[in-house]
């Protein structure tokens, strides 16, 4: 996601049941509206369209004929932002290989050692975006383009981990977000990495 954050005059924000305060040099001050991260829907971004949810894109922002004819390969349908987002993302229409429902989703990271994926809204199945076929998605989203083969991506990941650990960093892979999608990503990770 891209973002257009203004220069801020605090070190960090604290948000709890008392509201939001800004902290500068260890001292707390009340935070004003201007201190809060600017929501992308209020920026004057001309690249994207604001929608309330993903269903709206599928129902109203996708050509009806395309919706009826789309196949397993994802088709770019536009850039959108949603409530609370600090940036925007490309959205893709595709038919789920698992349940055959047509859905829209934006690309998530990561599965299969560095591939982005789209997730089915109905059954949770992840569709890994193979670099050889979907390179344009990586380019459009402005994200790192992983190596084409799994062996090369595993080598890349191992290099990154070995480099971090050689500098005394213990690498822990965090899947804290408790959503169906991250569970899919987590089990995919376990299967891939530990032959689970
Ligand atoms: Zn935008
Ligand atoms: Zn599905």
Structure in words:
This protein is an alpha+beta fold. It has two domains: 1-37, no CATH class; 42-194, no CATH class. Helix content is 29%, strand content 24%. The chain has helices at 54-61, 64-69, 131-141, 150-166, 180-194; strands at 12-16, 19-24, 27-30, 49-50, 75-81, 89-95, 102-106, 108-111, 115-119, 126-128. The strands form three sheets. The chain has a four-stranded mixed sheet, with helices on both faces. A three-stranded antiparallel sheet has the order 1-2-3, with no helix packed on it. It has a three-stranded antiparallel sheet with strand order 8-9-10, with helices on one face. Strand 2 and strand 3 form a beta hairpin. The longest helix is centred in the C-terminal third of the chain and has 17 residues, at 150-166. It is flat, with a radius of gyration of 20 Å. The chain starts with 11 loop residues before the first strand and ends with a helix. The model has no long low-confidence stretch (mean pLDDT 84). The site of one zinc ion has 6 residues, from loops. One zinc ion binds next to loops.
Largest sheet: 4 strands, mixed
Order of helices and strands: EEEEHHEEEEEEHHH
Q: What would the principal axes of the Cα set say about the shape?
A: flat
Q: In angstroms, what separates the terminal alpha carbons?
A: 32 Å
Mean pLDDT score: 84
Backbone structural class: alpha+beta
Present as ligands are: zinc ion
For this structure, the quaternary state is single chain
- Using the CA coordinates, give the radius of gyration: 20 Å
Strand order of the largest sheet: 4-5-6-7
Query: What is the count of DSSP helices, taking H or I runs of 4+ residues?
Result: 5
* Domains, number: 2
Low-confidence stretches: none
Strand percentage: 15-25%
Proportion in helices:
25-40%
**Number of DSSP E strands:** 10
